[in-house]
Amino acid sequence: MGHRPDTTTPTLRQLQLLLALTSSDGIASAGAQLGMSPSATSHALRALENALGTELIDRNASQISLTYTAEQVLPHVRDVFASLQLVQATALAGAELKSGLLRLGSFGASATIRVLPPLIERFKARYPGVDIVVTEKPDELTSRDLTERRLELAAVTLPKTDFDAQKLAVDELVAVLPSGHPLAAFETVPLKEMTTDPFILTRAGSQALVEKLFSRHGLRPKVMYELVQLMSILELVACGKGISVLAKLALPERYPGTVFRPLSPSTSRRIGLVCLNQTRLSPAAQAFWREARRYNSESEGPLIST
């Protein structure tokens, strides 16, 4: 395009469209995310490019590809919406946090079930008027929601070099066995022994960690099932259909027909609370961040450590 921009200021709707383009497979689908028709989407994109005086997508590419200029603009667009969220949150919460809404992200069951609840309970005792909504998605999607300003805070696996972070918990992988299985008699199960039976691989948050554990030691389990739901895995193990390796914090204290045993060698992961910039959080998010730090300080370490 390369001409001088016109005097029209980009609208918030147009900037929303630019953000939507980063996670869509087409211009029309980006607009659909915002409830726009294909023609309205095309018009909004052209209007934004005219306002900025440059093309924002490579129309010769087979898939959506942002131009260099668009990539440079994106962080500032995200800052615009972060500032708007801050304005809204400040107005809702008020100086004394008597009301408001805080959205927390969670990468999986370990954080949702075990790590976040004590923090939320403590926070609600101090700020009962602030509602908290927890959204659980895979770690990568939760991190994207933070980057794209759909969330302010989230519990994710560490390290995350692009975020401010504080550690909340240390988790480890454990063997999940039928209660009558020969390996259930072991206090600690050798990892090599987990490669002879049918194996049930989790497709949830700890999948990569499980696969890396076996790979690091040159081992390969006999994967017969790949499942997302924790309860499905536990039920199959209880029925003797296979064995599994899962994150300890994701598991209940006990499950009928199963036993949980440490592994040797094992591996652990750190779970942390993260944000893009702890100095630019809304009042409610800032209060939650402080509460997590205070709780960690009082506990002299992470909230939960295996």
> Can you tell me the residue ranges where pLDDT is under 50 for at least 5 consecutive residues?
none
From the coordinates shown, what is the CATH architecture of the largest domain? 3-Layer(aba) Sandwich
- Element pattern in H and E: HHHHEHEHEEEEHEHEEEHE
Number of separate strands: 11
* Helix content class: 25-40%
| Overall number of structural domains | 3
Describe the structure.
The chain is built from nine helices and eleven strands. Strand 1, helix 5 and strand 2 form a beta-alpha-beta unit. By secondary structure, the protein is α/β, with parallel strands linked by helices. Strands 1, 2, 3, 4, 5, 6, 7, 8, 9, 10 and 11 form an eleven-stranded mixed beta sheet that branches. Helix 1 (about 10-20) packs across helix 3. The chain folds into three domains: about 10-65, Arc Repressor Mutant, subunit A (Orthogonal Bundle), CATH 1.10.10.10; about 85-165 and about 270-300, Periplasmic binding protein-like II (D-Maltodextrin-Binding Protein, domain 2, 3-Layer(aba) Sandwich), CATH 3.40.190.10; about 170-270, D-Maltodextrin-Binding Protein, domain 2, CATH 3.40.190.10.
